[in-house]
Amino acid sequence: MLQGKLFCSIYKTRKKTGMYLFVDRQKGLKDLPEVLLKQFGAPIHVNDMILSPDRPLARADVQQVMDKIREQGFYLQMPPPPDEDLYLAEGHPDRPRGLDA
What we know:
Shape: globular
CATH architecture: Roll
CATH topology: NE1680-like fold
Radius of gyration: 17 Å
Distance between the termini: 62 Å
Number of domains: 1
Order of helices and strands: EEHEHEH
Number of helices: 3
């Protein structure tokens, strides 16, 4: 039925916007490394979906996600890098010092 596909659960964290954890739905979170869960924080369930090589994901290569889940039990999707124009904009709290010259 799911040959070549993977039924996964997706979780987000309150610690970092845009960070998501993909796991095999059948296994859930029970076998994940303690250090990962500690850094990720309390997982908040977002969605369940069937991953398939012919159905792309928005921010990650679907085959890589499936491979990582099968190999290590999870795939951690990091937030996208900051928009450089916004990051360098005057008034941004993380703007590098010395750009006003």
